[in-house]
Amino acid sequence: MIYLDNNATTRVAPEVFEAMQPYLTESYGNPSSAHTFGRQMREAVENARAHVALLLGVNHADEIVFTSGGSESDNWALGGFLEQNPNQRHIITTRVEHEAVLKLCEHLGEIGCEVTWLEVDQNGELDPDDLRKALRRTTGIVSVMLANNETGVLLCKQWARFRLTCVTGPSIYLQFRDTSFTRPKELARSTFVAE
User: Fold this and answer.
1) Where are the alpha helices (DSSP H) in 127-191?
2) pLDDT for the residue 165
3) pTM for the structure as a whole
4) Counting beta carbons within 10 angstroms of the beta carbon of residue 109, is it exposed (0 to 12), middle (13 to 18) or buried (19 or more)?
5) How many structural domains does the chain have?
6) Which residue in 53, 87, 128, 131 has a CA-CA distance of 20 to 30 Å to 119?
7) Residue 19, domain extent
8) In a shared domain, residues 182 and 99
């Protein structure tokens, strides 16, 4: 069989399987449990959190949150930002986002958030100027995937050169969905302000 859907699900790398095997077969306790087995698993999770923080260059390991997958992460990040920033209820996203973001943004629009839906061109790319023009002082979230999970198209080949002029205004949570990015800390959460 030839498998052509690695954008959606990829086989676990042998070294990852080897590192995880003890936690899938022998040390499988609930890290939230108070018993000895649970405390041992909590220590393993915290060690993993510290390792990921070091790998990503994060100053505090407690900034690393593990979720069950992309859909939970999208809901947690976008919903959490809105809960903490109730006056920044303008969201910018695209019509070609992952289903988890599309459905969440549709729901948020139904309950009072204003959603600006950016279009892509005939090549599936997003014009950075469209994003710049959509920004406003009430923008709280920009959620744009860098590479489309269905087509593999890079939405904006110019992201490396993309910059927003910083002036006084609100913070904006930028979520860039791309699991293969090499410098996620710089791209996953940045503070910009609308013109």
Assistant:
1) 128-134, 184-188
2) 37
3) 0.69
4) middle
5) 2
6) 87
7) 14-63
8) yes
Other CB atoms within 10 A of residue 148 CB: 19
CB environment 115-134: b (16+ within 10 A), e (fewer): bbbbebeeeeebebebbeeb
Regarding whether 171 and 131 lie in a shared domain, the answer is yes
CB 82 within 8 A of CB 107: no
111 has pLDDT over 90: yes
Quickly count: other Cβ atoms within 10 Å of residue 163's Cβ. Answer: 9
Query: Same domain for 183 and 165?
Result: yes
**Residues in Cβ contact with 76 at an 8 Å cutoff, skipping those fewer than 6 apart:** 65, 67
135 within a domain of the structure (yes/no): yes
φ, ψ for residue 93, nearest 5 deg:
-150, -175
> Given the structure tokens 């992952």, which residue do they identify?
98
Q: Token pair for residue 136?
A: 């406003």
Asked whether residue 3 is assigned to any structural domain, the reply reads no
Same domain, 90 and 142: yes
CA atoms of 120 and 90, how far apart (whole Å): 20
Residue 193 within a domain: no
For 140-190, what is each residue's pLDDT tens digit? 888 888 777 777 787 766 554 444 433 333 445 555 444 333 333 333 333
> How far, in Å, CA of 189 to CA of 195, rounded?
19
The sign one gets for the Cα dihedral 37, 35, 61, 78 is positive
Q: Please give the structure tokens belonging to residue 102.
A: 């599309």
State how far the Cα of 169 lies from the Cα of 172, in Å rounded to an integer: 9
Is 132 in contact with 163 (CB distance < 8 Å)?
no
